[in-house]
């Protein structure tokens, strides 16, 4: 029983990390029809910025509880700024040229890990998490790492915030209206380009937050971390239904749990294959994914 509890919470923690990356990816694609292959790079930027700040380079930031929170805020802010820069410099000039858009984001997604490797090396760096989150708590006989709860809580907050933004705020309504009829919204005197930049900023912030606290899960950061997680984030987006936040959340839970249980009860590494099989089976039954709509 204790093993099942540990695997379940670990799988939920991993699924929460997938959701933080996939939510921004789903939001950007669902609202702007942009496949951002540089999204994993934004996560890596957030991870390294947090690691740099928590290592004592940023005044006031460190591995203590409150100081680490400051480092996470810094890492998320840096990732958000990188997302805005990406949209302004790379994506905006290519909105009407989707093929060039894909090639450009793939290039950025390859360039950023190379840049990080050039600056800090290709080897993984230990992540200086706070002492308060390095312990465990007992649940039904299992000793569960506390950082799993942090990931799950962060994913829940991000999901609720995104739902609130899209459904209850003026900016969210402007974005959704701009996607449906950009010409009409522009004729009303609203600058749709600013709304789209805001969407990119929010998506980048979610990915950067995933990188910022993902180091707690893995215990280290490395340049390729965001790229490897991007693959599973795309799987989550497709399984959940392109552009569906609710679907992405459900798919993230499924992928995280399947991966953990398959790796434990079979040969290590078969969890990835099990996720691919799950994706194929779901698409055969529901080609549009779990929801197939923006929710």
Topology, please?
Layout: H1 2-32, H2 39-57, H3 65-91, H4 98-120, E1 125-126, E2 136-139, E3 142-145, H5 146-168, H6 170-180, H7 182-187, H8 192-218, E4 220-221, H9 225-240, H10 245-265, H11 270-285
Antiparallel strand pairs: 1-4, 2-3
Helix pairs in contact: 1-5, 1-8, 1-9, 1-10, 2-3, 2-4, 2-8, 2-9, 3-8, 5-6, 5-8, 6-8, 9-10, 10-11
Structure description:
It is a multi-pass membrane protein. Keywords: Amino-acid transport, Cell membrane, Membrane, Transmembrane, Transmembrane helix, Transport. The chain has eleven helices and four strands, in the order ααααβββααααβααα. The model has no long low-confidence stretch (mean pLDDT 82). The longest helix is centred in the first third of the chain and has 31 residues, at 2-32. It is mainly alpha-helical. It has helices at residues 2-32, 39-57, 65-91, 98-120, 146-168, 170-180, 182-187, 192-218, 225-240, 245-265, 270-285; strands at 125-126, 136-139, 142-145, 220-221.
Q: What are the main properties of this structure?
A:
4 strands, 11 helices, mainly alpha, ABC transporter involved in vitamin B12 uptake, BtuC, two-stranded antiparallel sheet, 295 residues, globular
């Amino acid at each position: 029983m204790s093993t099942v509890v540990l695997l379940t919470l670990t799988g939920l923690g991993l699924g929460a990390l997938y959701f933080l990356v996939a939510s921004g990816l789903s939001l950007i694609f669902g609202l702007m029809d942009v496949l951002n292959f540089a999204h994993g790079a934004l996560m890596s930027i957030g991870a390294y910025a947090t690691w740099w700040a928590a290592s004592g380079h940023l005044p006031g930031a460190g591995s203590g509880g409150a100081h680490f929170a400051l480092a996470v805020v810094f890492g998320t802010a840096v990732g958000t700024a990188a997302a805005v820069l990406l949209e302004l410099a790379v994506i905006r000039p290519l909105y009407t040229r989707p093929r060039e858009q894909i090639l450009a984001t793939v290039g950025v997604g390859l360039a950023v890990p190379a840049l990080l490797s050039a600056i800090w090396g290709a080897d993984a760096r230990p992540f200086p998490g706070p002492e308060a989150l390095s312990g465990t708590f007992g649940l039904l006989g299992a000793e569960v790492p506390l950082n799993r709860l942090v990931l799950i809580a962060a994913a829940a907050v991000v999901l609720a915030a995104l739902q609130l933004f899209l459904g209850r705020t003026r900016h969210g309504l402007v974005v959704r209206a701009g996607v449906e009829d950009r010409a009409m919204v522009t004729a009303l005197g609203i600058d749709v380009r600013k709304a789209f930049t805001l969407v990119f900023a929010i998506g980048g912030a979610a990915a950067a937050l995933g990188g910022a606290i993902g180091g707690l899960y893995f215990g280290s950061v490395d340049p390729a971390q965001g790229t490897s997680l991007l693959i599973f984030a795309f799987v989550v987006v497709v399984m959940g239904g392109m552009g569906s936040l609710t679907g992405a959340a459900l798919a993230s839970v499924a992928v995280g749990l399947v991966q953990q249980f398959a790796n434990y009860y079979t040969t290590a590494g078969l969890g990835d294959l099990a996720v691919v099989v799950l994706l194929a089976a779901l698409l055969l039954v529901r080609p549009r994914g779990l929801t197939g709509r923006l929710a």
